[in-house]
Design a protein that fits this description.
Blueprint lengths: L1 E6 L7 E6 L8 E9 L2 E10 L2 E2 L14 E2 L3 E6 L5 E6 L4 E6 L7 E7 L24 E3 L5 E5 L4 H7 L8 E6 L6 E3 L36
Length: 220
């Protein structure tokens, strides 16, 4: 199953990325590059993200037969300069950052965790609060220095993987936009009652963001 496709922003680059949520064979997730070769479009797998083993009693009923937490890649986002690809692993609660300057050989350069089916990693500003949900929809600022993640996917999926409630939160992550690297902003964490019981799915940035902006002319 695939959910998100992100083309390169530079219009002369005939490639883009697509995320596979889960494999029914081993619960892994993967990222593929679509590209033109000899006049035809093809797809090539470039990233594998394995499932993480977990104790049966810590898992929701839907996952107990498997003894593992799938990454569940529900969103990917490409920075406006086409340098960094962000991959949200909603199941494990991890946001991964890859340098995709060479799209066929991604290099992981950053990672943070928040929430997760088993981990329930807390936000730095509320260390005692175990969070449900995980980085889900990802939004990258146009300057590439800020990433925002929200935690709810879809009602029936939320209830299946987080049966005790998914909650509601929005987090900001600061980025080293030159070399890569992620750091949670401890001062930005709208959550809980601030959303009045609503599930938080996606955010949009005033003035444009990486998933809404694309160029109509080459940069060189």
């Amino acid at each position: 199953m695939t959910l998100e496709l992100r083309p390169a922003h530079e219009p002369t680059r005939e490639y883009g990325f697509v995320g596979v949520v889960v494999s029914v064979e081993d619960l892994s997730a993967s990222i593929w590059v679509w590209h033109r070769e000899a006049g035809e479009f093809r797809v090539t797998k470039v990233i594998d993200i394995p499932a993480e083993p977990a104790a049966t009693e810590d898992l929701p009923p839907a996952l107990q037969p498997f003894g593992a937490v799938p990454p569940l890649v529900t969103d990917i986002d490409l920075s406006v300069d086409d340098k960094f690809l962000y991959v949200s692993c909603w199941g494990t609660g991890e946001l991964k950052q890859y340098d995709v300057s060479d799209p066929f050989h991604p290099v992981e350069v950053g990672s943070v965790r928040l929430g997760g089916i088993v981990g329930r990693v807390a936000h730095p500003s509320f260390p005692a609060e175990r969070l449900a949900g995980g980085p889900q929809m990802v939004e990258v600022s146009r300057d590439g220095k800020r990433v925002y993640v929200t935690n709810s996917l879809y009602g029936s999926w939320d209830d299946q993987f987080y049966p005790d409630g998914v909650g509601a939160w929005l987090a900001k992550i600061d980025v080293d936009s030159s070399r890569g690297g992620l750091a949670m902003d401890p001062k930005f964490f709208p959550h809980g009652d601030e959303f009045r019981g609503r599930r938080v799915h996606q955010t949009r940035l005033q003035g444009g963001d990486a998933s809404s902006d694309s160029y109509c002319f080459p940069s060189a």
